[in-house]
Amino acid sequence: MPQRNDDVTRRRFLRDGLWGACLAGIGGVAGFAAHKGQKVDWLWQIDPYKCTACGNCATHCVLEESAVKCTHVYGICGYCEICFGFFDPEPFDIHEGAENQMCPTGAILRKFVEEPYYEYTIDRPLCNGCGKCVKGCNAFGNGSLFLQVHHDRCENCNQCAIAAACPAQAFRRVPADQPYLLKSVDHV
Predict the structure, then answer these.
(1) By the 8 A CB rule, do 180 and 154 touch?
(2) Is residue 37 predicted with pLDDT exceeding 70?
(3) What is the per-residue pLDDT for 127?
(4) 58 versus 30: which is more confidently predicted?
(5) What is the pLDDT of residue 33?
(6) 4Fe-4S ferredoxin-type domain spans which residues (predicted)?
């Protein structure tokens, strides 16, 4: 009796099944590669308009030295004679002595420009992210100093320890191609 061509033999069934599995695997790899190519990486960042400068950024980061640092927007403020991010609100005297400064590590530098202007800059390696300068700056309505996660230091943990401890829920995920949430002159 002649064998019919449409009969499914064991060999043919295995060959076709293997061929189908190979095609499905190739399709899966191609789909995964295409998805990965379009994947947007997300990073943690602090919304400066929600942050209360509570001090948790200095103590809750998994790094020994926090990835959160003070950031300064000169377009808002930056050349005052008396900066309340630099000076204690009730300083003993108006000079750069440590007893008059808000920053416990001396990370804000004050440089004379011309009468009556001084330039204030952040020495990032000294900044511990405590936010004392931010509180002082915000207390008088300027808001040019605020905290940001610096991504050259951040480990981008799946669950950020600082975000979990943030009482203001100011941490949020941002696209990696726009990693900073900066204050603007228009918003203040």
Answers:
(1) no
(2) no
(3) 98
(4) 58
(5) 59
(6) 42-61, 118-137, 145-176
Structure tokens given for 55 = 């001090």
Name the 3-class secondary structure at 26.
helix
Alpha-carbon span 133 to 143, nearest angstrom: 10
- Between 188 and 65, where is the model more confident? 65
Hey, is 25 helix, strand or coil?
A: helix
Q: How many CB atoms lie within 10 A of CB 20?
A: 10
| Rama region for 106: left / alpha / beta (φ>0; ψ in -120 to 50; rest) | left
Judge if the upstream peptide bond of residue 116 is cis by omega within 30 degrees of 0.
Answer: yes
Q: What is the pLDDT of residues 120-139, one digit of tens each?
A: 999 999 999 999 999 999 98
Percentage of the chain lying above the pLDDT 70 cut: 88
The structure tokens listed for 183 are 């204050």
Q: What are phi and psi of 52, to 5 degrees?
A: -105, 5
Beta-carbon contacts of 125 under 8 Å, excluding residues fewer than 6 positions away, are: none
Amino acid at 132: K
Q: Which residues contact 44 (CB under 8 A, 6 or more apart)?
A: 149, 154, 156, 157, 160, 162, 163, 171, 172, 173, 174
